[in-house]
Amino acid sequence: MADYRELWSKLGIDLEKHDKLCAVLPELYGGVYLTQKNRPEGMNYFNLVVAEVHGLRIQELDDYKAQGGKVVGTFCVFVPDEVILAAKAIGVGLCSGSQFWVEDGEKVLPRNLCPLIKALMGAKVGGTCPYFQSCDMLIGETTCDGKKKAWEILNDYVPVHVMELPQMKREKNCKAWEEEIKEFISKMEELTENKVTVESLRQGIKTANAKRRALKRLYNLRKYKPSPISGLDVLLISQIAFYDDPDRFVEKLNELCDELDERVKKGVDEGKKRIMITGTPMALPNWKLHSIIEGLNAQVVVEETCTGTRYFENEVCEEGETIDDLVKNLADRYMKINCACFTPNTGRIDDIIKYVDEYHVDGVIDFNLSFCHTYAVEHKDVEKVLKEKDIPLIQIETDYSTEDSGQIKTRVEAFLEMI
Ligand code: BJ8
């Protein structure tokens, strides 16, 4: 890898601490990913993106900023990428999935909080994430209480614009979300000094839809028996989708899917158990559960999570004559995302049932990041409906540490034997 120390130093990175992070990632990646057998050739691009996670992409962001461009960070799939693209800014997903950042996060946040929030906070306050350091503004949202309050602290480090996400889906709530999107457009225009026009917004919608379509194509391929790609590889691709250049990502993902089309024709089913994961998101580099499941010779074939189907299901309608028309289209699509921060959230249960059939799922694992109350409470509904359908289910509640990996492995092993 090229030497990016000068760039990191310019971004205000704590180089000594950052070196420690750079030392653990290749080992973790090598152990989890490069030991997989018979990976598609098309994964080479995604290997490169991970190898250069704090290098090439950061250089691209820096070059863009040098020409006057702006970079904004996001933390939730409700924040419309289309608006960021239309304002000619670059958006990067900043949810953090490493235990490395948790310690610094706990210096400013309570320990009994979701690891995703502690890690994203730690990445910023410890000055060890070049993506955070590249951002001119962060976009928060009022989803769960932990994140909502974390923005107040983050705002001391970098400007944060918070979008008020409704927690119900009545007509008046959808209208309110339209207003939030309009305010977000103004905010982005102010930041970038670029006017969002009907054409630029339509183009943003087309770009985001192309990404959704490519991910959907990948997921559709997993419906075959056997799935032509591991769950681990798909998880990685989904995680990369949040920060890679969207056009390049779509091109590379479609190339990979062309290769997978060929694999499907030659696939021989070995009868591996097919697992759905539902629940909380898995931010990079959280590969813990997938790695345990697939290490036990089962296969993850679908994730009903925000690093899975919730990110790409439903396209935004590209038709419309005015900004208001397009904003309405955006609101319509985004309000179809079924996150547990909504009440009621019956759409998520419908999705789970639908995916069980579509992906020929043998068993479901409800993945709950510790202290994420909304998803933990919703487990009862998931359990009820899967019991009715006679689909085996277990709940795994965990964080980013590896301390409980042995225990989780034992539970997953018993689950796989039972189904
Ligand atoms: S749309 S799931 S990305 S809010 S941070 S809620 S895990 S306690 S991430 Fe999320 Fe948007 Fe919903 Fe998806 Fe729980 Fe942790 Fe909160 Fe979390």
From TrEMBL:
Keywords: Coiled coil, Iron, Iron-sulfur, Lyase, Metal-binding. It comes from Clostridium ragsdalei P11. Its cofactor is [4Fe-4S] cluster. InterPro entries: FldB/FldC_alpha/beta, YjiM-like. This is R-phenyllactate dehydratase beta subunit. GO terms for molecular function: hydro-lyase activity; iron-sulfur cluster binding. The gene is fldC_1. Residues 174-218 form a coiled coil. Belongs to the FldB/FldC dehydratase alpha/beta subunit family. It comes from the Bacteria.
